[in-house]
Amino acid sequence: MAGWSGRVVKIAVINGPNLNLLGTREPEIYGTTTLAQIEERLRVVASELNAEIGFAQYNGEGEIVGAIHDMRGTADGALVNAGAYAHSSLAIRDALAAIAIPFVEVHLTNIFAREPERRRSVLAGAAVALVCGFGAVSYELALRGLLSKLKQDA
Amino acid sequence: MAGWSGRVVKIAVINGPNLNLLGTREPEIYGTTTLAQIEERLRVVASELNAEIGFAQYNGEGEIVGAIHDMRGTADGALVNAGAYAHSSLAIRDALAAIAIPFVEVHLTNIFAREPERRRSVLAGAAVALVCGFGAVSYELALRGLLSKLKQDA
Amino acid sequence: MAGWSGRVVKIAVINGPNLNLLGTREPEIYGTTTLAQIEERLRVVASELNAEIGFAQYNGEGEIVGAIHDMRGTADGALVNAGAYAHSSLAIRDALAAIAIPFVEVHLTNIFAREPERRRSVLAGAAVALVCGFGAVSYELALRGLLSKLKQDA
Amino acid sequence: MAGWSGRVVKIAVINGPNLNLLGTREPEIYGTTTLAQIEERLRVVASELNAEIGFAQYNGEGEIVGAIHDMRGTADGALVNAGAYAHSSLAIRDALAAIAIPFVEVHLTNIFAREPERRRSVLAGAAVALVCGFGAVSYELALRGLLSKLKQDA
Amino acid sequence: MAGWSGRVVKIAVINGPNLNLLGTREPEIYGTTTLAQIEERLRVVASELNAEIGFAQYNGEGEIVGAIHDMRGTADGALVNAGAYAHSSLAIRDALAAIAIPFVEVHLTNIFAREPERRRSVLAGAAVALVCGFGAVSYELALRGLLSKLKQDA
Amino acid sequence: MAGWSGRVVKIAVINGPNLNLLGTREPEIYGTTTLAQIEERLRVVASELNAEIGFAQYNGEGEIVGAIHDMRGTADGALVNAGAYAHSSLAIRDALAAIAIPFVEVHLTNIFAREPERRRSVLAGAAVALVCGFGAVSYELALRGLLSKLKQDA
Amino acid sequence: MAGWSGRVVKIAVINGPNLNLLGTREPEIYGTTTLAQIEERLRVVASELNAEIGFAQYNGEGEIVGAIHDMRGTADGALVNAGAYAHSSLAIRDALAAIAIPFVEVHLTNIFAREPERRRSVLAGAAVALVCGFGAVSYELALRGLLSKLKQDA
Amino acid sequence: MAGWSGRVVKIAVINGPNLNLLGTREPEIYGTTTLAQIEERLRVVASELNAEIGFAQYNGEGEIVGAIHDMRGTADGALVNAGAYAHSSLAIRDALAAIAIPFVEVHLTNIFAREPERRRSVLAGAAVALVCGFGAVSYELALRGLLSKLKQDA
Amino acid sequence: MAGWSGRVVKIAVINGPNLNLLGTREPEIYGTTTLAQIEERLRVVASELNAEIGFAQYNGEGEIVGAIHDMRGTADGALVNAGAYAHSSLAIRDALAAIAIPFVEVHLTNIFAREPERRRSVLAGAAVALVCGFGAVSYELALRGLLSKLKQDA
Amino acid sequence: MAGWSGRVVKIAVINGPNLNLLGTREPEIYGTTTLAQIEERLRVVASELNAEIGFAQYNGEGEIVGAIHDMRGTADGALVNAGAYAHSSLAIRDALAAIAIPFVEVHLTNIFAREPERRRSVLAGAAVALVCGFGAVSYELALRGLLSKLKQDA
Amino acid sequence: MAGWSGRVVKIAVINGPNLNLLGTREPEIYGTTTLAQIEERLRVVASELNAEIGFAQYNGEGEIVGAIHDMRGTADGALVNAGAYAHSSLAIRDALAAIAIPFVEVHLTNIFAREPERRRSVLAGAAVALVCGFGAVSYELALRGLLSKLKQDA
Amino acid sequence: MAGWSGRVVKIAVINGPNLNLLGTREPEIYGTTTLAQIEERLRVVASELNAEIGFAQYNGEGEIVGAIHDMRGTADGALVNAGAYAHSSLAIRDALAAIAIPFVEVHLTNIFAREPERRRSVLAGAAVALVCGFGAVSYELALRGLLSKLKQDA
User: Fold this and answer.
1) Would you tell me how many other CB atoms lie within 10 Å of the CB of residue I87?
2) What is the ipTM for the molecules in this complex?
3) From the CB coordinates, do chains E and K have 3 or more pairs under 8 Å?
4) Angle, helix A137-153 to helix A35-48, in steps of 10 degrees
5) Which class for G100: exposed (0-12), middle (13-18), buried (19 or more C-beta within 10 A)?
6) What would the pLDDT profile of H49-74 be if each residue is shown by its tens digit?
7) Does B120 touch chain C (CB under 8 A)?
8) This model's pTM is above 0.90
9) Is F30 a known active-site residue?
């Protein structure tokens, strides 16, 4: 999450377990776009909208907690796709509450149309907004929405 | 929902009970933008993206079912904010399944951060995607996402 | 529900939301017979069995309640396919209880072999009998059964 | 709900599905007083207490939502007997919250001594008070209590 | 509960735990009227309506059971505010059923708009009616309603 | 289940525990028609419709499983009234699935209007249709409906 | 259950699965008395109290149903220890209801102090009384109690 | 509980709330025998079986706890009919466990055939045995069973 | 709770049902220290820390409610071990809320490692802190913690 | 289960309802190997490992209970595939506990990846081990594992 | 997981939290065999059956997810004992689904005979088979079964 | 956890996710004391009481499991504040059980007065005691209590 420069709005993007496999993992569910391609696209959009953006992906719950801690003082908002941890991790929810910056929960798939154990997010109650089901486009919409919110509240 | 013209992508926007009061109803929760302003903004975005757009708002569950029936053959996709009916109406879900066009569920607020009885949608399982929590901007993001989906699948 | 004539047994048939689409809606589930064809067949059977028959279909819960009220004093029994409202509507159940005529609950599909939320009917507890799963034939069997019951109790 | 005159306290009385049948519907449960008789009695009491009163009854959920919207700016308080919708309708609850006037929930019967599905009201959490079980007298007590509350808060 | 005189209708008023603190206990919830003031007001109303009235308040469940036993043969009806015991006490419910006189359940606050554990009454199923949410006025309305019921059934 | 002859449609009728007592067992619930009378009536209807029919009744779950096994290759469809086992027996459901012939679940009474433990059937999810509540007539309607289904699919 | 003689009160004792092993099966739970010894003791007590007694034990649910049917017209009351079937068998409950004679549910152990799945009996709701926890003595007490009841009602 | 004399087996009988009304309270449920008559009968039986017996009845949970404490060192076993407290009182269960003497739970009615909230006893898990449903005779059977148990274990 | 003197911090210690038996009751669970010894130890600690301390123990819920009322204006904080009532008593919770002084919930044993029905406290939500599992030492730690809290907030 | 000879380890194999159909019943789920082929294979493996083996298959719950009783004193261990009864039969569980020999629960399919009602076994809590999902090979693995356990404990 | 050589079947063995302590941790539950000894035994069996085998053990959920990712393209099947994570980890389930190779769930103990929270596996629904309860032998049986499955499907 | 010296009692203190942020994270909930200050205070208290103390804090569940393993043979007891993992982690509970040393569960806040998902600890059932709600003082009280316990058991 290093390398923020100057005084522009800074957005951190946190991805959780198994998202490093994106593009090859169960492509009939998650699509063929890779995480690198998503990040590239987000960089372009951020640049258009005068925002700076940083990325992190971890499989471990504790490492995600640590990454969130590191955002304190360096990010103005976040996109969080915690993958399977979204359905259970109070530790990640606590970390997000602790740093007190607005975040949008993002999912590639419409989690509410999947297996019962995926239809509930413990993070959503702490998020400002949620976007899911547009595949890789979910991230871009979430970024636009978050920047719009931050401008409005500024 | 009348008045589609020519051969461009057509999107219907259905709003449910109490959304006619938008802008004046509990503004600390729902904001001060009116439904008319939202519709105006969506017309601009649709026009930019070469789409046509139509609107309907009803307080009655049966009238919403009827409005959805009327979309058959006249709309290529829909944005649906069924308001309080989103949490219980199998009839609306059936109507959406019956006409078999892709729709995005939209909410002004992040319903997953509200009272327990609002944290579940019976429509979401039939939707292709869901956007909530960005206030009036939720509609615009949903429109952009839906058009992107329709293009991709075309 | 108008037009009962003379002193023969009179049966009302009430259909609920989305049943107007019958024949074209999800035909792999609901079949290709239209509601008009079902009504035509029921007229023939009723006539054979010396009964008179009337029909109503509404998408709105309140309109169905009203239609049931109108049966009071004009119908001796009813076939009720309340569609999706069968799983939740106490108002329709109350209306049926209020007019105190025997009715048979009808469904095209075997609702007990479908999604969990459709496996329970709040109307069934007030019905005298239930027929489901025979497609359009369900109505005819229900009509025969109801007339047999009415004769027996007469 | 039309026709409020001058500057006195104005009370709206909203009745829900099946209450138009009052007096003839299951009289062993609901008594033999008709809705017209109840309204007449409430007019007398209102007049004694220098209040104005208006009435509405609908079988449809959407129409009740609309009637509640129409009370905005024209009523100072309301008596609401939503009938069977009291047990499930978030849309009516939202409408009542949207117009932000105090209302008393009323039922003819003691709903807590009836079938399990009637022992819970989704409206009660938004009401200021609840009266049930006194038959037609429930309305009169609710009116007296509401006027007493309004005076106290004035 | 001593001191009933002559042959007029007699009403007993039973108050449960913590109600002796009324007026000073959490006044933002329960108001500033004391129990003595409520009793005084009820005496006036009873006298107007030609009824006699007696009072009891206990913190102990067993003492309330005993007080209810003592009402047998001496009271024609009762107002019961069992306070926190209303949510759990089968013993009090049994005592009320044992003496077989009609009673109205009373609460100062609208218990259905409070914490989940207070939204259910085990007494309500045995009561003839329920009034709650009008503060000290709840008692007066309950008394009027009960006397009206007793007259009607006489 | 012995004695099928020639090449016509063959239907097996399986009855479960306590149905041998029909006609004398709790007649206010189950009616006064005996099982023998029902079987006689079904023979007449089957003969009219050019079908052959066979009967079995057992009190034991294992014997019913065995009877269902014996239907393999000898029956084209079945009517199954498993009595109390309908509410719990996965073994009977497995046997019906194993022989893979269409069956209709039948009950004399409307099981959905009875005690809670009888309102659920574990067989219904494997059945093609369900008829209940018409007393002895339920069997006849089920037979007509099943034969209609078999013809349609032939 | 054969061999009732003359016109004295006749009691049937039905034992369910695994009770044939009594005395050797898990003796630390069920004691060392055998079923034969219990039956001998019951014969003595019955004889003292001028009653006749008969016995049956089956491992199969269907055989128990059949044995209960056979009691019709030949027994005036029954002691039923259905063993593990007590916790689940609606078929046995139905059989007991069908023959309409009073029965006492008996268990050697205090089933309410055992594993959760044994703390509930589906038969108890149809029984007139229940005795459990006295080991082999449970049967004797149940017999005395049942004869006392029959005398009282005679 | 005073007055145990000499060295014979001593049994205490504890009765809970509302049992003082026995004989006049809901006689269609609880019978017409009074508590004094039951105690008299138990004295006779105890005397026959060379046991001493003492009695206590309280409406208050705390007083019952105290009465149980007083049994320590003075009673060898107990019959406990805690009335409505049987369904909820951990304090009484704790008191019984604290004094560590065997007790039999007794009820006049078959609590498992009554309303759902009465079908569960929190005391039963600590009891050695349970007798219910024989009316006043339940006590006598429980006494015989308990004395038999005490002799067996001596 | 009498006898507070001068202007030092005053702490009340309330003990509930069965705690009078401490030291002899189930010593393998609750230890051999008596309540008197605990009180003596608390007096020493209080004196060291310049606090005054008073004690009360009751088996009755109503008496505990009364004792809490008596603390109003005479105690600055409290230690509450409500014993078995901790798991169910809203009346005690209400009393503690009514007098609005900070209290610490205390248990000898670790209630969360015991039977399921003891793993939940209805008081804990109103307490400032909770200490359990240290046997008699739990009280001393709770006292030290409470005094530390009171000093901090002073 | 007859015919054990000499002093070698003896294993009984019990199969429940519908397993007689193996090889032809729903082969896409259960495979094409017949029960006879499985038994033949187990005989070979047992012989290799110096064990004797016997077989039983029943559709009836009571007959399985009886077969288990018969294993007492004649078998040292058992493989049990109770089929659908595995999900509900306390009677079979009791029988297995009564004879007190170690048994392994076996299933052809991975029951935990099937319909919800098959994901729970009431027998598993009494078994020493469980093998499922390897089709016919499950039995062989279970046999090897059980013999290894018996040797270890010998 | 490094060091696969040549073209033979390759099996990965993944062990989860606390399994590194095997042999010394709660030996009365988990036995005295160490993880090293289990791995040694599996190497011998694999070698006999012409398979190659690799091992990994991690305490962290994220590290297990990573280890599963590393199996992609290098393993043909897996044995997975996820320890306590088996009961909750959707992230591990997702990782196993993502790499799409067949795996067998393994446990030393019979998890279905342990505490309630261990009786459910979220992994089992994605596994091809499950073996538990044979202690260290569970792994060997699972290996044999998995290799048999792979051969069969090849 | 390194560096234990000599033969005094040694206590390990384990802190879980987000506790590294203490003092700055949501100070209105968790206070302004930092983790370093708490550790400093504990060192002083330990030194007074002749105990040695060591500290560890991790955000990852697997690392906490590892830290607990490292305590084996080097610590005599532990204070464990597992933060959000306290509500869900069986892996940490297993690790604590595996090393078999007594530990006290500690929380800064009264977790039983917070959001529902925080009111339950899966660790508490394995702990000897629990202290929560005193802020940073909770640790000191837990240390004193634990040392007292260890001395008592020595």
Assistant:
1) 18
2) 0.92
3) no
4) 30
5) exposed
6) 999 999 999 999 999 999 999 999 89
7) no
8) yes
9) yes
